[in-house]
Amino acid sequence: MNEKLTAMEKEILLNTARRAIENAVSGKKDLEINYERIPESLKKPGATFITLTKNGMLRGCIGTLNPTGSIIADVCDHAAAAAMDDYRFPPLEADEVDNIKIEISLLSTPRKLNYSNIDELLNLIQPGLDGIILKDGSARATFLPQVWSKIPDKEQFLSHLCQKMGAPAEMWRNKKIEVMTYQVEKFSE
Predict the structure, then answer these.
(1) Using the 8-state DSSP alphabet, how is residue 15 labeled?
(2) What is d(CA 4, CA 153) in angstroms, rounded to the nearest whole number?
(3) CA–centroid distance for 17 within its chain
(4) How far apart are CA 126 and CA 120, in angstroms?
(5) Can you name the residues that pair with 140 across neighbouring β-strands?
(6) 67 and 45 Cβ atoms separated by less than 8 Å
(7) pLDDT digit string, tens, across residues 168-177
(8) How far apart are CA 93 and CA 181, in angstroms?
(9) What is d(CA 49, CA 144) in angstroms, rounded to the nearest whole number?
(10) Which CATH number describes the domain made up of 111-183?
C-alpha cells in the first residue's frame, strides 16, 4: 500500500460517500465534487470498494480492482452504485439511509501470484491480509480481505470464490488459473 490516509482524508471520503448515497436515493443527479477543496492525495488514481451494511448485514457492495479515476471520484461513484445497483439487493430506500453504515476499502495494486502447484499457491496466500482475485479467461471474481472473517479456511475461500466466478467450486484444484492478491486500507463510519 502507498501512504496511509489521514483522519481528515478518511472523513472527507466517508462524507462524500454518504452525500453520494443521499443524492442517488433521492433521484438527484450525480454528486458534484469541488476539486479545489480536495487534498491532492485524494485526486490521485485509486481503486475502491464501498460496502454498505444495515444492522450488521450486507446491504450492498460495489467497487473496482483497477483505478479508473481519482480516489474521491471512485468513492463517489461506487457509493451511489452500492446503494442503487448491487444486483443482489433492491435499491436503497430513503428511509434506510440513516441506518446504513459505510465502509470504504482502498485497494493496493493487484499482484499476480506465481505458483506451480496447489501447495505452493496455498502457502502464498495470507488469510486476513490478502484480497484474492481469481481469473479464468474472461471470468473473474474477487473477495476483499474482510471475507476471511466469514471464510477463514484457504481452501474453502478459494472454492467459494470459484463459485462466485460461476465456476465449479473445485476448479482451482483441477486447473491452473490466474490468482492475484491485493491489500486494502479499510475504514468506516
Answers:
(1) H
(2) 29
(3) 14
(4) 12
(5) 135
(6) yes
(7) 999 999 999 9
(8) 35
(9) 9
(10) 3.30.1490.150
- Cell numbers standing for residue 57: 448485514
Domain ranges for the chain: 7-107, 111-183
Which residue's C-alpha cell is 443524492? 23
pLDDT reading at 77 higher than 70:
yes
124: alpha, beta or left? (left if phi > 0; alpha if psi -120 to 50): alpha
CA distance 16 to 37: 12
pLDDT per position as a tens digit, 37-65: 899 999 999 999 999 999 999 999 999 99
Nearest 5°: the CA angle 139, 140, 143 is: 150
Topology of 7-107 in CATH?
Glycoprotein, Type 4 Pilin (3.30.700)
Cβ atoms within 10 Å of 160's Cβ, excluding its own: 17
In single-letter form, the type of residue at position 1 comes to M
Average confidence (pLDDT) over 120-133: 97
Residues in the chain, total: 189
Residue 122 neighbours by CB distance under 10 Å: 14
Split at pLDDT 50, 70, 90, the class of 29 is confident
Question: What is the structure's pLDDT at 2?
Answer: 60
